[in-house]
Amino acid sequence: MVGLMIPVHSTLIPLFSLFQKLGLIDHPLSILLSYTAFIDIYGALTALTIAAALPAAASIVWTSWRNGITPMPSSYLVRRAVAEELNRTGEGGLLVESGSGWGTLGIHLGKRCKGWRVEGVENSPLPLAASKIAAWLAARKQRRAGDADGFSVSFRKGDIYDVSYREARAVVCYLYPGAMKRLSPLLAEQLSPGAFVVSVCFALPDWQPERVITCGDLYRTRIYVYKCATSSLLPERLRDQKRTF
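User: That's the sequence. What structure does it adopt?
Assistant: Structure tokens below.
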């Protein structure tokens, strides 16, 4: 006990002397009480942080298990490549990001792809909340810089297999093979001819890409660019899926 008290004592005495000269305290007990209060506040804040972090972590784990994938932010090189491909199309309109995660890709596209109205769909609560805050901050920054025209990015809670893609002129996704297999007939049924699909990492089964780009990042990430054709031009297997889905 004595050994523990010596460091505290040697720390408190100089502090008391300093505070006494400044007229902040008039008794050694005052600084001791302040020190104790600080420890109590620090402990309470730590407990509150842990209490808030545990449900958030549990939410991410549960949603990741249900979705089959953990929300992962895309790298800058991938975001830049996707934006370049969308700008290459010369199109504009509604762009749906299927599984928008933390919102990094959607916000980047909103900044770099003029003419597109980005709408992200995500069902994981914490990444969705973070993406909404990030979009609000990005819009505020754009307004302050006088460059708010054309920046339209929003995120909403939803199931990527239940939302409508009928009004979309482009769909962007960074998912996994099982999700791409489920989305394939949905997009074939709902997208109008000439609409684009840009997929990061994973190809759409039974679709023929117009372009495949390999990024210069560590993982040599591939980006698949598709242009939706008329139903009569789709592969027979995909037409069957479309009829029976």
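Residues 28-67 form the longest helix (40 residues).
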